[in-house]
Amino acid sequence: MSDLKVTLIQPNLHWENIEANLRMFDEKIDSIKERTEVVVLPEMFSTGFSMAPERLAQKMDGSAVQWMKQKAAEKNIILTGSLIIEEDGQYWNRLIWMQPNGVYGTYNKRHLFGFGGEHEHYQAGDKRLIASVKGWKVCLTVCYDLRFPVWSRNAITPETGEPAYDVLINVANWPERRSTPWKTLIHARAIENQCYAIGVNRVGNDGNDIYHSGDSSLIDPLGEIIYRKSHEEDVFTTTLERSRLEEVRSKFPFLKDADKFQVF
């Protein structure tokens, strides 16, 4: 298994303006000069964290998903982030894992942010998504999921004897007023699951005048901070080293001693 090139994009989103956000991400993705393989956008990247799905939701053939498909193909990348999706009269905060050939996976956010009323507007998902790229297994989560470690718990797969995944990605709109939990939890998820953990957040004020400091982060399997950016937009590309992951897991084989949890 070879190394994996990833790009984290931390933007200041245009509130409830799909077309403006797609144009902005066009520019940011086009600005990436080095080769990359996976590009990560934040939660509800086309709108901001809005509780108005009746006005903003699109179907899976809408402009935002079509843009993801076109951009992934154009740049030969995997593009991931979450969107407001309507399906059969229900609304979902849905993460999409879009491959360059147009094939995609989906993950509906499991833990809806009741404190902000998200559960009053959206349906909760009940299935994890572990995607694959170049032999790397990637567990995909959205924002509030980060507070619930059982949902993203890594474990040795009996059939293979290998961990269920190698990289945890969390896409978020996480306010600055709770930045300490955001930074602490993404750090903890990397250590306890012996994986690379990527947290991609937004910056700036949203339409409710809630400020986001970003603090997008990349943590290695031993808890070392590879990247963290606060208070400003950024596009960051780096390489996840397979040898580092294997070294940590071989030297400290903690996952084999983990408690058994059932994730439905």
From TrEMBL:
It catalyses: a monoamide of a dicarboxylate + H2O = a dicarboxylate + NH4(+). Residues 4-242 form the CN hydrolase domain. InterPro entries: C-N_Hydrolase, C-N_Hydrolase_sf, Omega-amidase_YafV. CDD domains: Xc-1258_like (cd07575). Pfam families: CN_hydrolase (PF00795). Keywords: Hydrolase. Its EC number is 3.5.1.3. GO terms for molecular function: 2-oxoglutaramate amidase activity; omega-amidase activity. Belongs to the carbon-nitrogen hydrolase superfamily. NIT1/NIT2 family. NCBIfam families: PRK10438.1. This is Omega-amidase YafV. It comes from Chitinophaga pinensis.
